[in-house]
Amino acid sequence: MRIVLVRTDRIGDLILSTPAIATVRASFPDARITMVCSPYNRIVMDRNTDVDDLVELRRDAKPGEFGARFRGQTDIAIALAPRKPDLQVVGATRAPLRVGYTYVRRYVARLTARLYVNRLMISEADPDLSDRDPHRHVRHEVNQLLDLVELAGADKRVNQLRLEIADEDRAAIAYLPQAPLVLHLGMRWFRDGSTLQSTLLLMKELRHFGVPLVVTYAPECEQFVKAIAESRQADVLLGGLAFFRWAAVFERARVIITVDTGATHVASAVRRPTVVAFEHRYFRLNSQEWSPYGVPQVLVRKPGDESPESLARFRGEILDAVAQLMDHA
Asked: Most buried residue among 11, 33, 76, 281 by CB atoms closer than 10 A?
Protein backbone atom coordinates (compact mmCIF):
# COMPACT_ATOMS: atom_id res chain seq x y z
CA MET A 1 0.00 0.00 0.00
CA ARG A 2 1.14 3.53 -0.79
CA ILE A 3 -0.11 6.52 1.17
CA VAL A 4 0.40 10.24 0.54
CA LEU A 5 -0.13 12.75 3.37
CA VAL A 6 -0.16 16.49 2.67
CA ARG A 7 0.30 19.45 5.00
CA THR A 8 1.98 22.58 3.67
CA ASP A 9 0.96 25.37 6.05
CA ARG A 10 2.41 26.31 9.44
CA ILE A 11 4.95 24.63 11.69
CA GLY A 12 2.60 24.52 14.69
CA ASP A 13 -0.18 22.91 12.67
CA LEU A 14 2.18 20.24 11.39
CA ILE A 15 3.25 19.48 14.97
CA LEU A 16 -0.43 19.02 15.80
CA SER A 17 -0.65 16.61 12.85
CA THR A 18 2.02 14.25 14.21
CA PRO A 19 -0.44 12.08 16.19
CA ALA A 20 -2.53 11.60 13.03
CA ILE A 21 0.61 10.76 11.06
CA ALA A 22 1.68 8.27 13.74
CA THR A 23 -1.84 6.82 13.67
CA VAL A 24 -1.56 6.22 9.92
CA ARG A 25 1.77 4.47 10.47
CA ALA A 26 0.42 2.32 13.30
CA SER A 27 -2.67 1.40 11.29
CA PHE A 28 -0.77 0.59 8.08
CA PRO A 29 2.64 -0.63 9.31
CA ASP A 30 3.70 -2.06 5.95
CA ALA A 31 2.63 0.91 3.83
CA ARG A 32 5.00 3.24 2.01
CA ILE A 33 4.12 6.67 3.40
CA THR A 34 5.09 9.88 1.64
CA MET A 35 4.72 13.21 3.44
CA VAL A 36 4.30 16.36 1.36
CA CYS A 37 5.41 19.48 3.27
CA SER A 38 6.46 23.01 2.40
CA PRO A 39 10.07 24.23 2.58
CA TYR A 40 8.97 26.21 5.66
CA ASN A 41 7.38 23.50 7.78
CA ARG A 42 9.35 20.40 6.74
CA ILE A 43 11.73 20.86 9.69
CA VAL A 44 9.04 19.28 11.88
CA MET A 45 9.28 16.03 9.90
CA ASP A 46 13.01 15.92 9.22
CA ARG A 47 13.62 13.39 12.01
CA ASN A 48 10.21 11.72 12.02
CA THR A 49 10.40 8.01 11.19
CA ASP A 50 6.63 7.61 10.80
CA VAL A 51 7.06 8.52 7.12
CA ASP A 52 9.29 6.92 4.51
CA ASP A 53 9.64 9.83 2.10
CA LEU A 54 9.56 13.58 2.63
CA VAL A 55 9.00 15.85 -0.36
CA GLU A 56 8.47 19.61 -0.62
CA LEU A 57 5.72 21.49 -2.41
CA ARG A 58 7.53 24.70 -3.28
CA ARG A 59 5.73 28.02 -3.45
CA ASP A 60 6.11 28.29 -7.22
CA ALA A 61 4.82 24.76 -7.87
CA LYS A 62 1.34 24.11 -9.23
CA PRO A 63 -0.38 21.76 -6.76
CA GLY A 64 -2.26 19.86 -9.47
CA GLU A 65 0.87 19.18 -11.50
CA PHE A 66 2.79 18.29 -8.34
CA GLY A 67 0.13 15.83 -7.17
CA ALA A 68 0.02 14.18 -10.60
CA ARG A 69 3.45 12.69 -9.97
CA PHE A 70 1.75 10.24 -7.58
CA ARG A 71 -0.94 9.25 -10.07
CA GLY A 72 -1.31 5.50 -10.43
CA GLN A 73 1.06 4.97 -7.49
CA THR A 74 -1.14 5.90 -4.53
CA ASP A 75 -3.84 3.98 -2.69
CA ILE A 76 -4.77 6.59 -0.07
CA ALA A 77 -4.18 10.36 -0.10
CA ILE A 78 -5.05 12.59 2.84
CA ALA A 79 -5.02 16.40 3.04
CA LEU A 80 -4.22 17.21 6.67
CA ALA A 81 -4.99 20.92 6.20
CA PRO A 82 -8.28 22.45 4.98
CA ARG A 83 -6.46 24.43 2.30
CA LYS A 84 -7.07 24.40 -1.43
CA PRO A 85 -3.43 23.65 -2.40
CA ASP A 86 -3.36 20.60 -0.12
CA LEU A 87 -6.70 19.38 -1.43
CA GLN A 88 -5.53 19.92 -5.01
CA VAL A 89 -2.43 17.79 -4.44
CA VAL A 90 -4.59 15.01 -3.00
CA GLY A 91 -7.08 15.25 -5.85
CA ALA A 92 -4.38 15.09 -8.50
CA THR A 93 -3.07 11.77 -7.12
CA ARG A 94 -6.36 10.17 -8.24
CA ALA A 95 -5.93 7.70 -5.39
CA PRO A 96 -8.96 5.41 -4.96
CA LEU A 97 -9.43 6.88 -1.46
CA ARG A 98 -8.91 10.62 -1.09
CA VAL A 99 -9.70 12.28 2.25
CA GLY A 100 -9.83 15.91 3.38
CA TYR A 101 -11.78 18.41 5.46
CA THR A 102 -13.10 21.93 5.51
CA TYR A 103 -15.03 24.18 7.91
CA VAL A 104 -18.73 24.20 8.54
CA ARG A 105 -19.52 27.63 7.06
CA ARG A 106 -17.09 27.59 4.15
CA TYR A 107 -19.91 26.75 1.80
CA VAL A 108 -18.01 27.25 -1.45
CA ALA A 109 -15.10 25.19 -0.14
CA ARG A 110 -17.52 22.43 0.83
CA LEU A 111 -18.71 22.29 -2.78
CA THR A 112 -15.31 22.53 -4.46
CA ALA A 113 -13.66 20.06 -2.07
CA ARG A 114 -15.76 17.35 -3.69
CA LEU A 115 -13.70 17.89 -6.83
CA TYR A 116 -10.63 16.66 -5.00
CA VAL A 117 -11.71 14.18 -2.31
CA ASN A 118 -14.29 11.43 -2.05
CA ARG A 119 -14.45 11.43 1.75
CA LEU A 120 -14.94 14.84 3.30
CA MET A 121 -15.06 15.73 7.00
CA ILE A 122 -16.79 18.95 8.08
CA SER A 123 -15.15 20.68 11.03
CA GLU A 124 -17.45 22.46 13.49
CA ALA A 125 -14.83 25.18 14.01
CA ASP A 126 -16.22 28.63 13.22
CA PRO A 127 -15.21 31.85 14.99
CA ASP A 128 -18.57 33.62 14.74
CA LEU A 129 -20.65 30.62 15.80
CA SER A 130 -18.35 30.05 18.77
CA ASP A 131 -18.64 33.69 19.83
CA ARG A 132 -22.44 33.54 19.67
CA ASP A 133 -22.73 30.34 21.70
CA PRO A 134 -20.44 30.08 24.75
CA HIS A 135 -21.47 26.42 25.14
CA ARG A 136 -20.48 25.44 21.61
CA HIS A 137 -17.86 22.68 21.74
CA VAL A 138 -15.03 22.59 19.20
CA ARG A 139 -12.70 19.61 19.06
CA HIS A 140 -9.01 20.25 19.46
CA GLU A 141 -7.24 20.21 16.10
CA VAL A 142 -5.36 17.06 17.14
CA ASN A 143 -8.65 15.25 17.69
CA GLN A 144 -10.12 16.56 14.46
CA LEU A 145 -7.14 15.18 12.57
CA LEU A 146 -7.39 11.82 14.32
CA ASP A 147 -11.03 11.66 13.25
CA LEU A 148 -9.98 12.65 9.74
CA VAL A 149 -7.48 9.84 9.23
CA GLU A 150 -10.02 7.40 10.66
CA LEU A 151 -12.09 8.13 7.53
CA ALA A 152 -9.20 6.55 5.63
CA GLY A 153 -9.24 3.47 7.85
CA ALA A 154 -6.52 4.54 10.29
CA ASP A 155 -8.04 3.41 13.58
CA LYS A 156 -5.05 2.58 15.81
CA ARG A 157 -4.95 5.96 17.48
CA VAL A 158 -1.74 7.52 18.72
CA ASN A 159 -2.43 10.59 20.83
CA GLN A 160 1.05 11.91 21.60
CA LEU A 161 2.69 14.79 19.75
CA ARG A 162 6.07 13.93 18.29
CA LEU A 163 9.18 16.08 18.00
CA GLU A 164 12.60 14.42 17.90
CA ILE A 165 15.13 16.38 19.97
CA ALA A 166 18.64 14.91 19.79
CA ASP A 167 21.24 14.78 22.55
CA GLU A 168 23.38 17.18 20.52
CA ASP A 169 20.54 19.74 20.69
CA ARG A 170 20.39 19.37 24.46
CA ALA A 171 24.17 19.62 24.75
CA ALA A 172 24.16 22.86 22.75
CA ILE A 173 21.95 24.60 25.33
CA ALA A 174 23.32 22.86 28.44
CA TYR A 175 24.80 26.18 29.63
CA LEU A 176 21.30 27.47 30.39
CA PRO A 177 20.04 27.45 33.98
CA GLN A 178 18.05 24.42 35.03
CA ALA A 179 14.24 24.66 35.09
CA PRO A 180 13.86 28.33 34.19
CA LEU A 181 10.74 30.18 33.27
CA VAL A 182 10.82 30.53 29.48
CA LEU A 183 9.01 33.49 27.93
CA HIS A 184 8.68 33.25 24.17
CA LEU A 185 8.13 36.55 22.36
CA GLY A 186 6.07 36.75 19.21
CA MET A 187 4.55 39.86 17.63
CA ARG A 188 1.29 39.40 19.52
CA TRP A 189 3.01 40.54 22.72
CA PHE A 190 3.38 43.99 21.15
CA ARG A 191 -0.05 44.74 19.68
CA ASP A 192 -3.82 44.34 20.06
CA GLY A 193 -4.15 44.26 23.83
CA SER A 194 -0.47 44.06 24.77
CA THR A 195 2.44 46.49 24.38
CA LEU A 196 6.22 46.52 24.58
CA GLN A 197 6.13 48.47 27.85
CA SER A 198 3.63 46.10 29.41
CA THR A 199 5.70 43.09 28.30
CA LEU A 200 8.79 44.59 29.90
CA LEU A 201 6.81 45.04 33.12
CA LEU A 202 5.68 41.42 32.87
CA MET A 203 9.30 40.30 32.62
CA LYS A 204 10.14 42.34 35.71
CA GLU A 205 7.20 40.83 37.60
CA LEU A 206 8.19 37.30 36.57
CA ARG A 207 11.50 37.89 38.39
CA HIS A 208 9.55 37.87 41.67
CA PHE A 209 9.27 34.08 41.48
CA GLY A 210 13.00 33.82 42.17
CA VAL A 211 13.48 31.53 39.17
CA PRO A 212 15.83 32.22 36.22
CA LEU A 213 14.10 33.83 33.25
CA VAL A 214 15.05 32.79 29.72
CA VAL A 215 13.51 34.83 26.89
CA THR A 216 13.39 33.52 23.34
CA TYR A 217 12.10 35.55 20.44
CA ALA A 218 10.88 35.05 16.89
CA PRO A 219 12.78 36.72 14.00
CA GLU A 220 10.01 39.28 13.44
CA CYS A 221 10.62 40.64 16.95
CA GLU A 222 14.16 41.86 16.22
CA GLN A 223 12.99 45.48 16.42
CA PHE A 224 12.21 45.02 20.13
CA VAL A 225 15.37 43.16 21.12
CA LYS A 226 17.39 46.25 22.03
CA ALA A 227 14.76 47.47 24.50
CA ILE A 228 14.43 43.99 25.99
CA ALA A 229 18.18 43.61 26.38
CA GLU A 230 18.51 47.07 27.95
CA SER A 231 15.81 46.21 30.50
CA ARG A 232 18.17 43.56 31.95
CA GLN A 233 15.22 41.49 33.13
CA ALA A 234 16.15 38.26 31.32
CA ASP A 235 18.96 36.06 32.55
CA VAL A 236 19.35 34.85 28.98
CA LEU A 237 17.98 36.37 25.76
CA LEU A 238 17.99 34.02 22.77
CA GLY A 239 17.11 34.50 19.11
CA GLY A 240 18.06 32.90 15.84
CA LEU A 241 18.17 29.40 17.31
CA ALA A 242 17.96 26.37 15.05
CA PHE A 243 14.52 24.81 15.41
CA PHE A 244 15.44 21.75 17.46
CA ARG A 245 17.73 23.72 19.75
CA TRP A 246 14.87 26.11 20.42
CA ALA A 247 12.71 23.07 21.24
CA ALA A 248 15.47 21.85 23.58
CA VAL A 249 15.31 25.19 25.43
CA PHE A 250 11.59 24.64 25.90
CA GLU A 251 12.18 21.09 27.09
CA ARG A 252 14.43 22.50 29.83
CA ALA A 253 11.75 24.90 31.11
CA ARG A 254 9.78 24.69 34.33
CA VAL A 255 6.93 26.71 32.79
CA ILE A 256 6.60 28.26 29.33
CA ILE A 257 4.74 31.54 28.74
CA THR A 258 3.75 32.43 25.19
CA VAL A 259 1.15 34.05 23.00
CA ASP A 260 -0.85 31.97 20.52
CA THR A 261 1.87 30.90 18.07
CA GLY A 262 3.60 27.70 17.03
CA ALA A 263 5.55 27.97 20.29
CA THR A 264 2.41 26.70 22.06
CA HIS A 265 2.64 23.42 20.19
CA VAL A 266 6.39 23.05 20.53
CA ALA A 267 5.83 23.39 24.29
CA SER A 268 3.19 20.65 24.19
CA ALA A 269 5.44 18.39 22.11
CA VAL A 270 8.16 18.61 24.77
CA ARG A 271 5.50 18.16 27.49
CA ARG A 272 6.02 21.31 29.50
CA PRO A 273 3.37 23.25 31.48
CA THR A 274 2.30 26.23 29.42
CA VAL A 275 0.57 29.58 29.85
CA VAL A 276 -0.92 30.88 26.61
CA ALA A 277 -2.24 34.39 26.03
CA PHE A 278 -4.88 34.11 23.32
CA GLU A 279 -6.22 37.02 21.31
CA HIS A 280 -9.31 38.77 22.68
CA ARG A 281 -11.21 38.25 19.42
CA TYR A 282 -12.37 34.69 18.77
CA PHE A 283 -11.04 33.52 22.13
CA ARG A 284 -13.72 30.84 22.50
CA LEU A 285 -12.78 29.13 19.26
CA ASN A 286 -9.02 29.52 19.39
CA SER A 287 -8.67 28.46 23.01
CA GLN A 288 -10.45 25.19 22.23
CA GLU A 289 -9.01 24.30 18.84
CA TRP A 290 -5.39 25.38 19.40
CA SER A 291 -4.83 25.16 23.13
CA PRO A 292 -1.82 23.26 24.53
CA TYR A 293 -2.35 19.54 24.04
CA GLY A 294 -1.85 16.97 26.75
CA VAL A 295 0.06 19.18 29.20
CA PRO A 296 -0.83 21.25 32.30
CA GLN A 297 -2.01 24.62 31.04
CA VAL A 298 -3.66 27.92 31.84
CA LEU A 299 -5.25 30.01 29.09
CA VAL A 300 -5.48 33.79 29.40
CA ARG A 301 -7.46 36.18 27.22
CA LYS A 302 -5.72 39.35 26.07
CA PRO A 303 -7.69 42.49 26.91
CA GLY A 304 -9.80 44.27 24.34
CA ASP A 305 -7.97 47.56 24.93
CA GLU A 306 -4.57 48.79 26.08
CA SER A 307 -5.56 50.91 29.06
CA PRO A 308 -3.18 50.73 32.05
CA GLU A 309 -5.88 48.97 34.07
CA SER A 310 -6.51 46.32 31.40
CA LEU A 311 -2.82 45.67 30.87
CA ALA A 312 -2.18 45.37 34.63
CA ARG A 313 -5.05 42.91 34.95
CA PHE A 314 -3.69 40.91 32.00
CA ARG A 315 -0.24 40.67 33.58
CA GLY A 316 -1.78 39.68 36.89
CA GLU A 317 -3.65 36.82 35.26
CA ILE A 318 -0.43 35.59 33.68
CA LEU A 319 1.42 35.75 37.00
CA ASP A 320 -1.37 33.82 38.73
CA ALA A 321 -1.23 31.22 35.97
CA VAL A 322 2.54 30.81 36.31
CA ALA A 323 2.22 30.41 40.07
CA GLN A 324 -0.45 27.74 39.58
CA LEU A 325 1.64 25.78 37.10
CA MET A 326 4.83 26.05 39.13
CA ASP A 327 3.04 24.23 41.93
CA HIS A 328 2.50 21.29 39.54
CA ALA A 329 5.80 21.41 37.64
From this structure: 76
